Amino acid sequence: MDYTKKITVMREGQKFLRNLNANGKAFHLDDDVEECFKIGKDGDLTLKEANLLTERQQELHSIDWGMFGDCHGFHCHIHNDGLDTEGNFYFENEFLDQYTIQDVKDVFNAASKNFNHEKYLGCNKETGALTFGHIDDVQEFHSGGGFYHLFILLQSGHVISHSKADKFLEISKKKWESIIKYYESDSENEEDGFGYEPNNDDHENRCLDFSLNNKEVK
């Protein structure tokens, strides 16, 4: 595992923590690295790796984790497939206004049931079966005229979007680093992000009508 890359934003921290889990190196992020691993030539980490991991650990504590609150919130999120023992998300709902936490679950579940998991939801042998733990970010935006949209960024980089007024759900063809880059792609002369998905291949298999009122898919 590469411990050398600095962590400056949430998306980098998310990828780092997912890699720690995948490589069997997950540990409590408040504990000293030297107390959690055997250090040395024949140990879990070399001295150089331990020092680098300590640097990354400090960076994980210093970045903005948005709706997850801190690195502990996201670590629990991925380690427990997104939900606690009472079925609640590990992220905070104060980041939502027109949508609710239940709406997030319903939109995610509708996408899970209707879209190809490997092709559009990024599921493979490495990432495992799709769970709420594959969510890396959730945001909503108001595009004017009373149109509210929910966006769910997946670990794979694909973005699930839902329009409340149009009762329309779709998933992005491309992979994106963040929701804001997807939402504002037209301002950077990239006409393949939000609002331009029909320009991309196979759109008919990446969209559906979905009402949050009756959970009906058409």
Description:
The protein has 218 residues and is an alpha+beta fold. It folds into two domains: 10-79, no CATH class; 96-209, no CATH class. It is built from seven helices and five strands. The protein has helices at residues 10-22, 33-36, 47-62, 71-79, 101-114, 117-120, 179-183; strands spanning 135-142, 148-154, 159-163, 168-171, 207-209. Strands 1-2-3-4-5 form a five-stranded antiparallel sheet, covered by helices on one side. Strand 1 and strand 2 (148-154) form a beta hairpin. Helix 1 crosses helix 4 (71-79).
Lay out the secondary structure.
Blueprint: H1 10-22, H2 33-36, H3 47-62, H4 71-79, H5 101-114, H6 117-120, E1 135-142, E2 148-154, E3 159-163, E4 168-171, H7 179-183, E5 207-209
Helix pairs in contact: 1-4
Helix content: 25-40%
- The figure for the number of domains is 2
Tell me the strand percentage band: 5-15%
Counting DSSP E segments of at least 2 residues, the number of strands comes to 5
Shape: elongated
What is the H-and-E element order? HHHHHHEEEEHE
Structural class: alpha+beta
Described by strand count, sense and barrel closure, the largest sheet is:
5 strands, antiparallel
Which strand order do you get reading across the main beta sheet?
A: 1-2-3-4-5
Radius of gyration: 19 Å
Report the end-to-end length measured between terminal Cα atoms.
Answer: 44 Å
> Mean pLDDT across all residues, rounded?
90
Low-pLDDT segments: none
Total DSSP helices: 7
Which descriptors would you attach to this protein?
218 residues, five-stranded antiparallel beta sheet, 7 helices, elongated
